[in-house]
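Submission sheet (multi-component)
Chains listed below:
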Amino acid sequence: MTDLYIDALAIAVRAQPRLQPSAGLPVRDERRRMAAMIARNRGIPAERMSVRQPLPGNLADAEDYAITSRALDALGRPDHDQPLFLVRSGPVTDPMTAPLAATLHAVGWTGDDMGVSHLEEQGGTQVFSLLGWAVPENRRATVVIVDDPAYVDEQTEKPTFAAVALRLARTGALRVVASGEVDLEARALPRAARHAHALSGPGACDAWLDLHAALSSGTVSRGEFVLLRTIGDECQGSLLLEAVRPQELIMTRVPLED
Amino acid sequence: MGAPPGTLCADVGLSRVSVQFPRGNESVDRVLERAGYSAFERRVFAKFHGLRDTPTLAPGERMEDLLVGAGREALAGCGADVVLYAHSQVVQEFAIRPGFARRMLDGLGVPGAEFYGISHINCVSMLRAVEVARRYHARPGAGPGDRVLVLGGDQGSYDDSARIIPGVTVAGDAAAAVVVHPPRSQESSRYRYLSGGAVRDDRFHRVLRMTQEELTRYAKACLGYVATVLHEAAGRAGLRVTDLDWIMPDLTSATFWRDFCRAAGVERDRVCLDLLPVRGHNFGIDAMSALWHADLTGRLRHGDRCALIAVGAGAYVQVVVVEVVGEQP
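Outcome: structure written.
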């Protein structure tokens, strides 16, 4: 993996996810049909599916890019053009529009862009295996990891309804040490990594939210390691970070609210 | 990522393209009639856009099988280190069932490969994935035996509302695949990557919710962007547009390419539209399938330069220029 660092971390979290049982929607409603299709493919009763309602009067949320643009706004604009990777899996609220292009339009992004999908909950960690080679060696980049599903099985899923925006650089506060299946006992890793703070959760953003809290409270000190883990039903992913200069990390947390 | 100047990436080779169409087919007219289009509107699709049939999964056929079939054929019994699955639709019924990536890797016979969906850029996703593959081959430590499988395809037929772009096209079910080799690969490539280019105009992000006025502006803007990006991509390869032997187009409609040829001064017989009436538009794989068909029918000769062009809602335009290597066996 090429040297990657994180020098800014911004989180946008829905203050109040507005979930509505899909069974309460009109029979011909597109979202009810979608919820039924998802339930059918997951092998669960359609009644278990809820649909996230957009914030009233918020077109950006109706077209499903409000949380991404909020996180990007909080992260701030880069000094120069850089590529943006949107890590998002699963259906969106309005498939008739292009949420990534809408986000870029809303925040005035002029760099390249690309979506990364089908990583599901592993998007919070596994994407760094891609970024390790997909970000050009002499470039910075921005990545937004989204866990804001439009359709939720409330019995088994507890999404964070959040987006985590990260600015990647070639030097910075947090060093990306390894990703994928990380064995802390591996000889290639520094011995100190064996005592890494472990933060984990079932969604793509859980561990990042915990990392934000840990860094804000000073729990993680300079020179320490943090192991972020995403724990899905079928597999697990890990990302090992070294807090090289944690005090220099620019951190923001903003709500998305009415 | 989008418009690579070439210095940061490897000049890769591409294998033969593999394309899988389903056994089923549906007439565009019938799809439109079901959606409530008038006889006059349907005639426009047939007479002006040149669209007659659209590939449609037959009962019992599965989109995942098309993808695996195309991928395995491109892999030709060898492995891959990375699979980039390029798709246009964000709602994919076949991929909602948990474990899609694992099923694909197992089906392709590459269980240990990395798997990433390349998405949210609509129908330019497959050509963009070729650019992403170049990054893989340009990374420190890249080896001559590394292989990236670029896989593309969507299922339009799961819902008529997902396959009809009003006034423009009807999209079908199909899959395509190509292996991207590093520059010093021992494998013989069928195509040599020469250059690429891309542009985005995110003013058109409302896509199917655009007003008629916005749609008109969008269509006009895309004509200009295709001409500009094609000119730039050819220039990066040291070529003029007139030096290109073939254009492998996005197959949304014949109308677009008639207008393009008129505006850009490109001869119409250089635009490979043979597949348009019988296969129509199939999201991001159109240019690859046009290349596949041109090769299959013996149109390509050693040294021919082909520009693959994709236009995506949002709006995105992506061009990849390749050169044919070796004669058709």
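Remark: Chain A touches chain B through 48 residues (CB under 8 Å).
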